[in-house]
Amino acid sequence: MIIAIDGPAASGKGTLARRLAAHYGLNHLDTGLTYRAVAAALLEKGLPLDDEETAARVAGEVDLGALDREALSLHEVGEAASKIAVMGKVRTALVKAQQRFAHRDPGAVLDGRDIGTVVCPDADAKLFVEASAEVRARRRTDEMAGRGKPADYAEVLADLERRDARDRARAVAPLKKAEDAHLLDTSDLDIETAFRKAVELIDRVRNAN
Ligand code: CDP
Ligand code: CDP
């Protein structure tokens, strides 16, 4: 079984994907971390963020088993990730690794921007997670504060909106809902309620198939 979860930044897709993977006994991959890993490696080595060949070479070396969420969570890394994510050759390299991960037994939940459209178009269930920009910025601000890295709400909001705009506008694999994905708006839902709704949707789709 493969479950595809897409949505804009801080919509709650990662939290949901993790819980769904535990619930169904599946592997989980946050594909955003793979883009972040490429960006972090370039930043660390002082390599340019605008050279597709270099970024693609680094993307070919990303080890999915060694993705460190904490180290990759930096705001600068997310911003740089969305810049290298517009490059077709970077995406080709990462998508290949993501697809290999998805097809490992016993199956997987993947979350990102293009899982339902590009990485796993044949997924057994697809969700597109949404929430208003204000709610998402509030959640991300609270999350940063909880980690002891307080951030300014207005800056977080501007950052999310800039990144979303770049992700939606790019030519290759833009952020968009797959036609057969189910929309889950979590603006007014807590994590538990969002999870229960997702399970309901997924079980309904599975039973129908
Ligand atoms: O956690 P957050 O939603 O802030 O971002 P992320 O999922 O870690 O993704 C960071 C950036 O990677 C996004 O802004 C996208 O530009 C890019 N990305 C992508 O292009 N395709 C994916 N499947 C996942 C992430
Ligand atoms: O993966 P993505 O960037 O879409 O978001 P996330 O990391 O799952 O969630 C961002 C923050 O919002 C986390 O701190 C979650 O605990 C919180 N959240 C929430 O408050 N309510 C939800 N329904 C979903 C997530």
Q: What does it look like?
A:
The chain is an alpha/beta fold. It has ten helices and five strands. α2 crosses α5 (75-84) and α5 packs parallel to α9 (153-169). The chain is globular, with a radius of gyration of 16 Å. The N and C termini lie close together (12 Å). 57% of the residues lie in helices and 11% in strands. The protein has a five-stranded parallel sheet, with helices on both faces. One cytidine-5'-diphosphate (CDP) binds at residues 9-10, 31-32, 35-36, 78, 81-82, 85, 112-114, 163, 167.
SSE blueprint:
Elements: E1 2-6, H1 13-24, E2 27-30, H2 31-45, H3 52-60, H4 69-72, H5 75-84, H6 88-102, E3 108-112, H7 115-119, E4 125-130, H8 133-146, H9 153-169, E5 182-185, H10 191-208
Parallel strand pairs: 1-3, 1-4, 2-3, 4-5
The structure holds cytidine-5'-diphosphate (2 copies).
One cytidine-5'-diphosphate (CDP) binds at residues 7, 9-15, 139-140, 143, 186, 189-191, 194.
What is the count of DSSP helices, taking H or I runs of 4+ residues? Answer: 10
Q: Characterize the largest beta sheet: strand count, sense, and whether it forms a barrel.
A: 5 strands, parallel
Structural class: alpha/beta
Beta-strand content bin: 5-15%
Sheet with the most strands: spatial strand order: 2-3-1-4-5
Order of helices and strands: EHEHHHHHEHEHHEH
CATH architecture: 3-Layer(aba) Sandwich
* Percent in helix: 55-70%
What is the CATH homologous superfamily assignment? P-loop containing nucleotide triphosphate hydrolases
Number of domains: 1
User: How far from one another are the termini?
Assistant: 12 Å
Mean pLDDT: 96
Class, according to the CATH hierarchy? Alpha Beta
Number of strands: 5
